[in-house]
Structures are given as structure tokens and as C-alpha cells.
Amino acid sequence: MAEFINKWLLDPTVGKIVTALFAIIILIAIVRFIQRLLSKKIKDTDTRYRIRKSVSFFGYLAAVFVLTIVFSDRLGGLTVAFGVAGAGIAFALQEVIVSFAGWFAISFAKFYKPGDRVQLGGIKGDVIDIGILRTTLMEVGQWVNGDLYNGRVVRIANSFVFKDPVFNYSGDFPFLWDEITVPIKYGSDYNLAREIFSKISNELLGEYSQRAKSAWEDLVKKFLIENASVEPMITMIANDNWVEFTIRYVVDYKFRRTIKDKMFMRILEEVDKNKDKIGLASATFHLVETPTINVKLDN
User: Fold this and answer.
1) Looking at per-residue confidence, does 191 or 219 come out higher?
2) In what order do the strands lie in the sheet with 233-238?
3) Which CATH code is given to the segment(s) 109-168?
4) Are 215 and 207 within 8 A, CB to CB?
């Protein structure tokens, strides 16, 4: 027994395994120390997250480099064994492999990045972490109206980028087109209504229009796309019940609901100031009572 233990301890392969484990433990300790040190020094959340992910990535590379050096003299003999085992592993872990390939594509093809608002596999939310196998979202919508967090954290396999469309609300153009409709009674001052809506749009959306114009110009240079107008647009149609104004505008994807609230508030204020000239329309239903019917029967 003692002879077996001595032989086992003196085995070069065992020594290499112990060396590799010891080196990996030291690397893990160094990576965690650097991450904690940087977390205390860096206050910006986005910068701190990116540096932590970079440190982890270089830690993985260092571990692979150490293992390659330690087992360099045995890699040649293990090539055939790895080849046979690799086929079985690839079949059994095909979803994991595709997810890893998805992480590689996300990292270098720039499908999205932490902080972007995306829709993956029918789930919409803000990207809060991109792992090697999964992307983590803070979900918005569902039972909560508007583009607000519902408190649910969702983890989606990175393989989705190869299977389903990836909707990015904040990638190359971090703005969305939105619109509201305002029904106006027939007989109102339509020119005054258009003037009021234009003034409110420029007041609340002027900053977004300037920023969106610059971002759209960069998009036109990058893709084959028309040079669309990002200025607020006001159109009018007449239907059976009222005249309907539509205000179409560009807004930051995170403030769509907030801007819509401010737009309606300002519109109601201005209409109240000019209620003798402009009236908001609404659907009304008049219920008519059935007239009394007298029935006289002759005997």
C-alpha cells in the first residue's frame, strides 16, 4: 500500500494536475481581488461592469494558457482521445456550444450590449448582463402598462440570436417614433388647433429632434436607408364623428410614456384656454325611451 501511494505521489501526471489546480486557484484569487478593488475605486456603474467582465475574460484566457503550458508535453498523445470524445460531447452539448457561439457573436458582432433595450424570444427588457451562455434581462411590460419594469429578471440562452429576430430599441438609433391622436369637434378652429399642437410638440420634443437628427445622419452613412424626417409631424383626417389630428414624433425609447403624459397634459391645458374656439370630441350615445302605446280592445 505504501509503495502504491509513493508511486502515485511521484507520478508526473499527478504532479501536473496538482500544479494546474494550484495555479487556477491562484488565478481565481487574483481575479476576485482585482474585481473587488476596482469595484471600490470606480463609481460609474457602466464602467465598473465592463471592467469586471474584462477581468473575468482575461482570467479565463490565463487559465487556458496555464493549462496549455502544464500539459504541453502530453497534448500530442491526447489528440486522438480528444477527437473521439469531442464528437460525443459536441452532440450532447450542442445547445451549450451554440450558446457559446451566440456569446461570441454578441460580443464581436454587436447585436446588443449591456444597457440596451431589446426583445429576445418574445421577451422585452433591458440587458443587465451578458454571460458566456445566457443573457440576463430586466423585463418590461407584460402585466405592467407602458415601458416600465415589472420586476422580473429573465435569463435567455445566447443561442436565440441565431434562431429568432433580435429587436434592439437602443442600438444604432436610440429613439422611437410614437404618435398620439386628438379628436376635435366639427366647427372648431382647425388652423388654431394645428398651431397649438405644433407649438407643444416643439416645446416638449425639440431636444429629442436635434439629437435624433444627428443619430439618424450617422445611421444613413452606415446603412442603405432614406434620410427620413425626425421633426414632429401633424396630420389631419375627417371621419364621420370628428376631425382627428395625429401628432407623430421621435422620442427617447426610455421616455415614451413620460412624453406622452406631458403631451396630453399640455394639450388639455391649451384646449381649455381656447375652449370657445376648439372643442375636444367624444362619442356620445342618446338612449331614446320607447313611446307609450295604448291598446284598446273592443268587447
Assistant:
1) 191
2) 175-184, 243-252, 233-238
3) 2.30.30.60
4) no
